[in-house]
């Protein structure tokens, strides 16, 4: 049944169960395991993205007023790169990995065989509604799984477009799209999946994880968090400011899980940093940023109200040093910088996920690391410095999903690096080969023949057999250790045999 047919009727638990049953039957046929099927589906995603590029850009503009530049670079291009890499490397990813066997079970050989998990669910977020929906799907298909995609209802134009395009381009017996909101997501979460990938906030992440526990389903959670950016003095402040601005406001106007959520610098350096950020904001978005076509709008009125609440809190609104302008009718909030907001304020205790950037001042830059560690582990953390000792300390002491020195968000474009959180910012990772591995099971396989069978592993058990096995195991399975243990075993058996003969002779 095609996706569009599924969505023409109410979608509840009964429909979800029927869909999963059909997908399991398709997966059980073995078709998704073939190299040819995987390649054909990856190429179809590539074609779909290429042929409908303008429709995708228009959908993203409708949902978020996302600038075309951001739509192409941060969504379309990254998705194409994922497909290109998977198509190039798929044979090597699928190939069993030969590993050393143990001389303890000589002769034998061993390998690790990657196999698909089965039928997986991908629940997407609204801020990057194309990339976050389909980047995990690339990995799931490359690994040989059947997939259900649940796009975010908060990006309705992109959700509708994904349902149409995936229905037209993909093998609907193995790849489905389910549109909808809480009811549809709940119906999906009631089913048994072989893995669930969820991108979004921690509150829903807990719901997803609780649902998965019922079926012992593994989860991949990308949950964001308060990503800090530490700024040291003695740096190229113009370059640093530009990179901070584009990482914060040039990434969906701050509505990105890896955007800097707050900054830390010394009291002495803060005025210079603020002025540098102001200059670059004016250069990039003009004196009236609410009119800029290079800034995304806030996704909806609920998020607008949430951000307004953070900004209007007592003891916070007076800390604005730049920006703060708002336009409710167009759901726009200008890039806003705040200095020395109270640590107990909402803006410092909730993930901002918007165009507000508080700056916290400390006496020494090193104090920033201790402050970061008092909170939950973030999805990303950034440091701007020329001090090698400080870089080393940052990498060694700050735990986060990913770290970047002297830039922001660029680690997302490096396919050889995993993307994922740690602690409350998420679990599991994907991107590049890590996407393939995220949706694969590494199956251990041992091959043996019938030669080389030794009696020491079989009853009747004796102290001599135990001694031999223990010595072989303690030796780490080295061939010389085993030879030495065999020699001792033979010597002991020889002495045992001689002693038995002597006892027999004496008795005679």
Descriptive overview:
The active site is at 222, 257. GO terms for molecular function: aldehyde dehydrogenase (NAD+) activity. The termini are far apart. Helix content is 45%, strand content 17%. It is globular and about 110 Å long. It has helices at 3-6, 13-28, 35-51, 53-64, 68-94, 131-142, 156-169, 182-189, 202-214, 237-248, 270-285, 301-312, 365-373, 388-397, 433-438, 463-474, 479-507; strands spanning 97-99, 108-116, 119-123, 146-150, 175-177, 195-199, 219-222, 228-231, 262-266, 320-322, 326-327, 332-333, 336-339, 356-362, 380-384, 402-405, 419-420, 426-427, 429-430, 440-448. The strands form 5 sheets. The protein has a 7-stranded mixed β-sheet with strand order 10-13-14-9-8-15-16, with helices on both faces. The protein has a 6-stranded mixed β-sheet with strand order 5-4-3-6-7-18, with helices on both faces. A 3-stranded antiparallel β-sheet has the order 1-2-20. Strand 3 (119-123), helix 6 (131-142) and strand 4 (146-150) form a beta-alpha-beta unit. By secondary structure, it is of the alpha/beta class. It is built from 17 helices and 20 strands. Helix 4 (53-64) packs across helix 5 (68-94), helix 5 runs parallel beside helix 6 and helix 16 packs antiparallel against helix 17 (479-507). It has 3 domains: 12-223 and 433-443, 3-Layer(aba) Sandwich (Aldehyde Dehydrogenase, Chain A, domain 1); 228-420, 3-Layer(aba) Sandwich (Aldehyde Dehydrogenase, Chain A, domain 2); 454-501.
């Amino acid at each position: 049944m095609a996706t569009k047919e599924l969505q023409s009727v109410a979608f509840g638990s009964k429909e979800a169960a029927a869909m999963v049953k059909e997908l399991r039957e398709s997966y059980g046929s073995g078709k998704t395991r073939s190299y040819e099927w995987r390649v054909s589906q990856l190429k179809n995603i590539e074609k779909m993205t290429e042929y409908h590029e303008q429709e995708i850009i228009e959908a993203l503009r409708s949902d978020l007023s996302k600038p075309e530049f951001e739509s192409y670079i941060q969504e379309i291009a990254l998705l194409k790169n994922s497909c290109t890499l998977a198509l190039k490397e798929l044979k090597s990813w699928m190939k069993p990995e030969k590993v050393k066997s143990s001389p303890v079970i000589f002769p034998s050989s061993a390998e690790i065989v990657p196999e698909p998990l089965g039928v997986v669910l991908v629940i997407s977020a609204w801020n990057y509604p194309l990339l976050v929906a389909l980047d995990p799907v690339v990995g799931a298909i490359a690994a040989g799984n059947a997939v259900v995609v649940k796009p975010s209802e908060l990006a309705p134009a992109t959700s509708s477009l994904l349902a149409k395009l995936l229905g037209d381009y993909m093998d609907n017996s193995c790849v489905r799209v389910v549109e909808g909101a809480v009811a549809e997501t709940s119906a999906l979460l009631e089913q048994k999946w072989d893995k669930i990938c969820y991108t979004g906030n921690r509150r829903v992440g807990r719901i997803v994880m609780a649902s998965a526990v019922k079926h012992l389903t593994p989860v991949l959670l990308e949950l964001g968090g308060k990503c800090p950016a530490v700024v040291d003095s003695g740096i190229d402040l113009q370059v640093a400011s530009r990179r901070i601005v584009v990482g914060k406001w040039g990434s969906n106007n701050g509505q990105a899980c890896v955007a800097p959520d707050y900054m830390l610098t010394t009291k002495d350096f803060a005025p210079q940093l603020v002025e540098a950020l102001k200059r670059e904001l004016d250069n990039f978005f003009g004196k009236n940023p609410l009119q800029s076509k290079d800034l995304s709008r806030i996704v909806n009125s609920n998020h607008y109200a949430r951000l307004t609440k953070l900004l209007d809190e007592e003891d916070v609104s007076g800390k604005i040093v730049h920006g703060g302008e708002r336009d409710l009718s167009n759901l726009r909030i200008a890039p806003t910088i705040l200095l020395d907001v109270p640590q107990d304020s909402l803006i410092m205790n909730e993930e901002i996920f918007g165009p507000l950037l508080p700056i916290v001042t400390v006496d020494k830059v090193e104090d920033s690391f201790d402050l970061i560690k008092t909170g939950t582990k973030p999805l990303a953390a950034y440091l701007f410095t020329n001090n090698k000792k400080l870089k080393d300390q940052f990498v060694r002491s700050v735990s986060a999903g990913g770290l970047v020195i002297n830039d922001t968000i660029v680690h997302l474009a490096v396919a050889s690096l995993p993307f994922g959180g740690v602690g409350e910012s998420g679990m599991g990772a994907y991107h590049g080969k890590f996407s393939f591995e995220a949706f694969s099971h590494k199956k251990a396989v041992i091959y043996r023949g019938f030669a080389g069978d030794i009696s020491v592993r079989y009853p009747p058990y004796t102290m001599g057999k135990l001694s031999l096995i223990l010595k072989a195991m303690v030796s780490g399975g080295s061939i010389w250790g085993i030879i030495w243990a065999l020699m001792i075993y033979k010597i002991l058996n020889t002495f045992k045999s001689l002693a038995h003969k002597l006892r027999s002779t004496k008795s005679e």
